[in-house]
Amino acid sequence: MAFIQQGPRLAHPLHHDRVLRAWLHATFDASERAALEADLTALGDYALLAHARALETPREEPVLTTWDAWGRRVDRIALSTTWREGAALTTRHGLLWSGQEAHARGLQRAAQFARVYLYHAASAFYTCPLAMTDGAVAALKAGGDSGLIAHALPHFLSRDADALWLSGQWMTETVGGSDVARSEVEARRDDAGRWRLYGRKWFTSAIVGETALALARPAGAGNGAHALGLFFVETRQPDGAWQDGLRIQRLKDKLGTRELPTAEIELDGLAATALGEPRHGVRKIAPMLNITRTWNTLCALASMRRALALAGDYALRREAFGGALIDKPLHRDTLAAMAAEFEAAFALGFGVARLLGEVESGLADADSVAAWRVLTPLAKLWTGKLAVRITSECLEACGGAGYIEDTGLPQLLRDAQVYPIWEGTTNVLALDVLRALEDGPAPLGAWLRAQWPVQNPDAAPVHATLDAAARWWQQARQERTRLEAGARGLALTLARCAAATLLARAAQSAGTHGDARPAAALRRFMEHGLLRLPGSAADECAAILAQD
Ligand code: MFK
Questions:
Q1: Cα 102 to ligand 1 centroid, rounded to whole Å
Q2: Residues near 348 by Cβ (< 8 Å), separated by ≥ 6?
Q3: Model's pTM, two decimal places?
Q4: What's the mean pLDDT when you consider all of the chain?
Q5: For the segment 129-181, what is each residue's pLDDT rounded down to a tens digit?
Q6: Helix, strand or coil for residue 373?
Q7: Strand 211-218 relative to strand 186-189: parallel, antiparallel, unpaired?
Q8: Spacing, Cα 289 to ligand 1 middle (Å)
Q9: For residues 150 and 210, what is the distance between their CA atoms, to the nearest angstrom?
Q10: Does residue 265 sit in helix, strand or coil?
């Protein structure tokens, strides 16, 4: 009989993820773990089901129907099965509400993001509107409008699927998604004094959300970010029809995340509520950005983990050149190199999630708050890039099958390409790191040093790299162009130092239980190098780019 290769099989994402299990063990006490277990197991079960379904059924994509048969404008969006299951799973297993529960040690975000990590790869990016809804909770809380908070938060954090509201984040316009200070959508008061929005939003994920936070410029307010307001809108009328003044023009034809209905919309008098004075909209939406960037990080980790799990399983099943792939030294080395990078990224991503909970609970001191502010964009930018690299390499580890659609593997790479782009590109986030590092990298360096387990020999190269980063910043700060040009290198260096530090803590904790694997991952990660600062050749950009 002709040879038929077995495809990779997905093991239970909770029971067979040693990195996650060790982290759960190190973070929560036994009773907390027992309380979490039911949700995490159910989300892992769902991941298995969704994976099998995706392989067996034709891929679904959202469909926009603009007009009904009788000529009425309806803008109806038909969603995929996974998306239709999203609200029930979210509310039942606490994808949103668990992040706001009080916890004596501020671990509510850690518990929430463990759920996100298990759900994401199965969710067909239903996690995108969840991220934005979570961000809207933060922005509304920071805005302090008690009426609006009482109106919206019980829905955002509902445990009842029928009561759940999702929120969009309407920032990006035709002028772009990075320099949002140029936003053109206008806010005007109507005769009754009510704000109404006019103009086009060019990229609105989660268009099916019942609400959104929108940046808009009050008429006559002038240019720039300070002259933008932040507005809360409700998208639906009580009977479920769209509000007057909101039209879905088309769904975006994206490289990946194709089950996610991202839309272009036209606003023609949509009623809106200003969050406080309609000024400083970017400052007001910033709390949302930091939350969605944390989701981005955890979702990037989840995608990496899924790709590594499949490539790892494939290496056990695939025989070539007289033996299993996993026994081929070079293939094993390639997988181990990726796994070490992933394990370091996991330590950083979950470290940021945990820190977020401590900050929000008022348990973090000023140095930790400052560290969290910088670590959030660092984690997002590094994990976003790493997800593309790792998913690409995992496809290659499956050979030609990795390039064939109905193995389900190519989608991993297409989807991963979104992580470095949305919620701030790598370069925009590197510049945000400069913004957050006001006094340079030295305070973050000091905070990281304090996290190291005592007398750990791996600390020395990390500390030396942090010193090098601080020296580079001292020199580069004299010349803004140099500082900006090197911002990505600085950010990647700091991200790797932070990841090494947090992985060292995980390794120490695992070591007390006789588990030497995280320590081995740390050594391998350090071997890949920490330093990514630009060298002197970077000053020759203009010469390199010059054309005849
Ligand atoms: C599954 C996963 C999840 C996620 C899915 C989401 C899909 C959504 C798709 C999209 O919408 S993609 C488009 C996403 N766009 C962005 O994320 C925006 C990217 N651009 C930036 O982040 C720019 O850095 C920024 C718009 C913030 C720059 O604007 P400005 O006006 O040049 O910034 P400026 O003047 O430096 O900052 C304005 C204020 O905000 C300052 O405060 P003050 O007014 O008090 O001085 C800043 O300190 C503050 N700020 C900016 N970024 C902040 C921040 N504060 C805290 N945290 C931050 N990250």
A1: 28
A2: 297, 375, 378, 379, 382, 383, 495, 498, 499, 502, 503
A3: 0.98
A4: 96
A5: 999 999 999 999 999 999 999 999 999 999 999 999 999 999 999 988 899 88
A6: helix
A7: parallel
A8: 6
A9: 16
A10: strand
